[in-house]
TrEMBL record:
It comes from Pisolithus tinctorius Marx 270. Transmembrane segments: none annotated. It comes from the Eukaryota. Residues 32-102 form the Myb-like domain. This is Myb-like domain-containing protein. InterPro entries: Myb_DNA-bind_4, SANT/Myb. Residues 1-11 have a biased composition (Polar residues). Residues 1-36 are annotated as: Disordered.
Length: 174
């Protein structure tokens, strides 16, 4: 029985498996050791945007370099240390958060345009009521590919609109 585990004297634990107390012949898979995701508060998002604004000269083509993201992560760790239910704000998570904030910016800019057909206010979002709920649902669902990022702004504003706008290359810097 070469190549079979039937005659093996090695324990299942050496293979990263745990004995299933209910059925010792069917071991449990190893426990997942996935790292906790970084959870961002509005205050932390603002701190990241303020940091990036203070390093705007380092964004040559509108994108920040790896060194800036590393420095941003160190800044966040120093000024906003992670709590027990949160993970470190790594360079990668800082960059992902900025990309997500840019998506939100463009979704809100679209909502603010006359072409969207919605009124928009920075505090209350698109101010959707029962009167225009069907129109909103079509905007975010039927035209889902184009406007899916607008969904969170149904009745909530985007507090970072102006801060993100200042960081975009189209804002006239350079």
């Amino acid at each position: 029985m070469s190549g079979s585990s039937a005659g093996s004297t090695r324990s299942l634990r050496s293979h990263g498996l745990t004995i299933n107390p209910l059925d010792p012949w069917n071991p449990l898979p190893p426990p997942r050791t996935r790292k906790k995701a970084a959870v961002w508060t509005t205050e932390e998002e603002g701190a990241l945007l303020d940091f990036l604004a203070s390093h705007l000269s380092q964004a040559g083509d509108g994108n920040f370099k790896k060194a800036t993201w590393n420095t941003a992560a160190a800044h966040m760790a120093h000024n906003h240390p992670p709590g027990p239910d949160n993970s470190d704000k790594t360079a990668e998570s800082c960059e992902r958060k900025f990309k997500a904030l840019k998506k939100s910016y463009y979704a809100v800019a679209n909502l603010k345009s006359v072409a969207s057909g919605f009124a928009y206010d920075n505090e209350h979002g698109a101010m959707i009521s029962l009167d225009n709920a069907d129109l909103w649902d079509r905007y975010v669902k039927v035209m889902y590919q184009a406007h899916k990022d607008a969904k969170p702004f149904r009745n909530s504003g985007f507090p970072h609109f102006a801060s993100v706008e200042l960081l975009l290359p189209s804002h006239g810097r350079g």
